[in-house]
Amino acid sequence: MNEINGTIGVLVTGAGSVYGLGIIRSLKESVLPVETIAIDSNPYSLGLFFAHKSFIAPQVVDEESYYMFIKDLCINHQIKAIFIGSTAELPFYSRNRESIERSTGAKVFVNSPAVIELCTDKWLTMCHLSRHRFQIPASIRYPEDASMLSSFIESTGFPLIVKPRFGRGSVGVVLVKDKQQLLENIKGKKSLLIQEYLTDEEQEFTVGICINQKGKVISKIALRRYLLEGVSIAAVSDDYHHIADYCAMVASTLGAYGSINIQLRLKDCMPVIFEINPRFSSSTSMRLLFGINEPESLIRSEVLCQEVIPDSAATGLVLRQYIDYYFPLDKLNSLSTTRLY
């Protein structure tokens, strides 16, 4: 176990995203002596105004400049851990994790390239789950499985879900109620997934699992959620331990590291997984209100080398409402002078 000497510098990237902000809030609520350093390429990112220190970062597409920026920032501010709050940055950190850890000494909480590829490709996700005997919605590819379309419709029935094979959240996801709607939504398109529609919207869950370097589950929580435009606006925590345990087994088969977010609905009282995101969730800050601090668990396990036993979530309801924040202009102006590149 490592001794805590002074503050623990923690970097959070993508401070403007919902889950980047959730990570920052979790770190600031932690009982650990954490100093949060937030970065984003956009100065109007809310997380930059909540962190202890904030910097404007270069775009990750300029990998060489971005790498040097991160390396210098970690060394100058004695960063011990890096949390990624931007989906666009995941591949960069996944590829460069070992190099960054070696050159800076900071732990990078990111999944391997293989896990990210498997979760980003929704067809590969379904194949992996099926191979390990986990329940999935009936699924075919389009246009690759076009010859099976008629028999798929006959066996599955309408409505059906049409979604991009490679996509984020609910972007491009369409519910089609008949054959005409289906044909309109697949005509001339590629890389689609056509899936059985899991009808019980009242039984949709978002499940967060954190796994350490040794493959041990150190945090788990299942929340029944309600969505508006693809984002959780309400979450209920109750006696859902069996769902959390089920998803912990799923995460273990992936060889995940850090945070994994699993989406499912119940069918005949059994979890049926339709998506896995290899990152923190937009409900990270909701989980905090139920007593589950995922970033803190990872720091305790990986930076401080403490044994971490998963906490039980408090039961209750969390409602999400967007709030407006006021900041003086000098706060914004000071950000423009904190570029390191």
Structure description:
- Pfam families: ATP-grasp_3 (PF02655), PylC-like_N (PF21360).
- Keywords: ATP-binding, Nucleotide-binding.
- One of its GO terms (molecular function) is ribosomal S6-glutamic acid ligase activity.
- This protein folds into three domains: 8-109 and 324-335, Rossmann fold (3-Layer(aba) Sandwich); 138-196, Dna Ligase, domain 1, CATH 3.30.1490.20; 200-319, D-amino Acid Aminotransferase, Chain A, domain 1.
- Helix content is 34%, strand content 27%.
- It contains twelve helices and 15 strands.
- The longest helix has 15 residues, at 90-104.
- It is globular and about 65 Å long.
- The two termini are 36 Å apart.
Please describe the topology of this protein.
Blueprint: E1 8-13, H1 18-29, E2 34-40, H2 46-50, E3 53-56, H3 63-76, E4 79-84, H4 90-104, E5 107-109, H5 113-120, H6 122-131, E6 139-142, H7 149-156, E7 160-164, E8 174-176, H8 179-186, E9 192-196, E10 204-211, E11 217-228, E12 231-237, H9 241-254, E13 258-267, E14 270-277, H10 284-289, H11 294-303, E15 316-319, H12 329-335
Parallel strand pairs: 1-2, 1-4, 2-3, 4-5
Antiparallel strand pairs: 6-9, 7-8, 7-9, 10-11, 10-13, 11-12, 12-15, 13-14
Protein name: ATP-grasp domain-containing protein
GO molecular function, one term: ATP binding
Organism: Clostridium sulfidigenes
